Amino acid sequence: MDMSSDISELSRIVFSYPAIDNHSHAFLREEYRDSTPFEGLITEANLNTDQAKCDAASTMACFRATAQLAKLYGLGADADWETVKRFRSQVPYDQLCRSCMAPTHIQCILIDDGLGSGEKVYPYRWHDQFTASPTKRIVRVEALAEDILKRAIEFQIEKKELAPSTLLERFLFTMDTALRTAAADGEVAGFKSVACYRTGLDVGIVSSITDDAQAHQLLTRLSLIYMTNQMLRLAHKPINDYIVNATMRIAGEAGKPVQFHTGLGDNDITLTLSSPAHLQPLIKAYPGTKVVLLHSSYPFTKEAGYLTSVYDNVYLDFGEIFPFLSADGQRQVIREVLDLAPTNKIMWSTDGHYWPESYYLGTLQARQALFEVLESSIRRWELTLPQAIGIVKRAFFENANRIYGLGLEPQFS
Prior knowledge:
Elements: H1 3-16, E1 19-24, H2 50-57, H3 60-73, H4 81-90, H5 93-101, E2 106-112, E3 136-140, H6 141-159, H7 164-183, E4 188-193, H8 195-198, H9 213-229, H10 237-254, E5 258-260, H11 280-285, E6 291-293, H12 301-310, E7 314-318, H13 321-324, H14 327-340, E8 346-348, H15 356-379, H16 385-403
Parallel strand pairs: 1-2, 2-3, 3-4, 4-5, 5-6, 6-7, 7-8
Helix pairs in contact: 1-15, 1-16, 3-4, 5-15, 6-7, 7-9, 7-10, 12-14, 14-15
């Protein structure tokens, strides 16, 4: 058997097969293209100091991204990070976006449009110009809840109805209605929770908080904060746990997945509470609701793979590690994903955000890493070529297409 022809065919499929990006965020609008430090492309660190930017630019991830972007831009091999930044800031924005998106072969994007940048980013359907299939929404439930609570507080103030019980009832009713409306919306592919950032993944199982004295006190406090400085952030366990439970229940009834941020994040998370293992009681409580563990759950990938292997309703996204980890780190994560997770339950994403380069690097590096891991397995006679190709097609397209009910056919560009 000519193994070289098998490897060549695997390479062709890996680097050209259409992809569904099952979790990403919107591009910055052209007028805001340089409003956020570009180092956010390769790190989750808060970049509010020169030292943080220097640290990010000193990583293996940045060295590799620099070389790959320099090649994309047609710069010399000796271009450094600052040269790359200067060059990309001068390229016409439409040209920049298209040059980054064209090589990705992304057919469909599922965009979490609740990242919090408001007017600085484009609406989700704007991204349709780069894909063969329409973009779909992922509803971030904590952002939805904050908007609803703000409106409820403003209504209470206007009507001079400041009773906490009335505020709570209005909030819960409106939240339930909004979740059901989103679940019935054909533009919405699923939901996402960032409980990991707010109170941790040890989400309690609750069905009601109408009689919860602590919830009433928290709403009173939140109302006072909002009336004082117009700021509101839900990071209070009784309320956040209820929001997640309500989402799980309603999403399950509608057959739509719930994504969870797990693992890799900025310093706003409590690392010990970001392991998906904490979600086990919630997973068991809602066996009819599809749960997607985002971001490879890094560094808790083994725990995520375990959950994916033993619960019918759990799926694993291997995203965000591109381009945040070194090439060796990415290959190791994919190996850990494949250690135990069924290959009909894994999905890929860029976690692309703000910059078109995040989509480019997130795709290029994912394809490279998956190819290298599968190539190695073929060379060791652990996989046949058809088995490896099946993994590629499922990971990049078929699984997300099925799990999110997209009903797409792969389109080759």
